[in-house]
Structure formats: structure tokens, C-alpha cells
Design brief:
Elements lengths: L2 H14 L7 H14 L17 H14 L6 H6 L3 H27 L1
Length: 111
């Protein structure tokens, strides 16, 4: 098998395994990654660094995510959770906790 055949086989296999974002958080992360990595159609199970990401691009991603989900994730979260799918779960979990805390605080203020 020639290198070109191997490359084409890899691309076809990756397309078969492509996973679209499943919720608003994953869609937003996907948009951010696409912008930072200058790529279209990123599978939610693709590793940020294997797509051409590096630590400087990761800082940019963190900055853009903080615009939409302020103070929810750390840069370390991005290094620990390198796929859109994993990162989406972390944001969902942490965002849920923040919202619950906000509701408790609001109720205390109302009383």
C-alpha cells in the first residue's frame, strides 16, 4: 500500500467516525476550536493537539470560552480534557454547579 492510499484510507475512516456536536455547549466549543485552529467540521472526539493545537492556541481557546462561560473552566481543564466532548461535559457539570449557587444566592437575597 502506498502512502497516498494509506492517507486516503485514514481520511475515509475518520469521516465514518465523525461525531457532530450534540448540544449548545459542544457547538460553541466547536466554533471556537474551528476559529483558533482554522479548521472546519471538527469531530467532538478529536484531540485538540492532534488537530494542530499547541499551548498558545489553548490559551486563546480559554480566552474565547471565558467570553461565553465566564470563570467556568481553567487552562488546566483544557489540558486535561482535550476533546470537545470531554470539555463539554466539564463545562456542563461546572456550569450547573454555578447556576445552582446563583439560585441559592438569589433566594437568600429575596428573603
Amino acid at each position: 500500500m502506498e502512502l497516498l492510499d494509506l492517507l486516503n484510507t485514514t481520511i475515509i475512516n475518520e469521516e465514518k467516525n465523525f461525531k457532530n456536536p450534540t448540544n449548545e455547549i459542544e457547538w460553541k466549543i466547536s466554533e471556537i476550536w474551528s476559529k483558533v485552529l482554522n479548521l472546519n467540521d471538527i469531530s467532538i472526539d478529536a484531540d485538540f493537539f492532534k488537530l494542530g493545537g499547541n499551548s498558545l492556541k489553548m490559551i486563546r481557546v480559554h480566552s474565547l470560552i471565558n467570553i461565553h462561560f465566564p470563570s467556568i473552566i481553567t487552562v488546566q481543564d483544557l489540558f486535561d480534557h482535550r476533546t470537545i466532548e470531554e470539555l463539554g461535559k466539564v463545562i456542563t457539570e461546572k456550569y450547573g454547579l454555578v447556576n445552582k449557587e446563583s439560585i441559592r444566592t438569589m433566594k437568600k437575597i429575596e428573603f
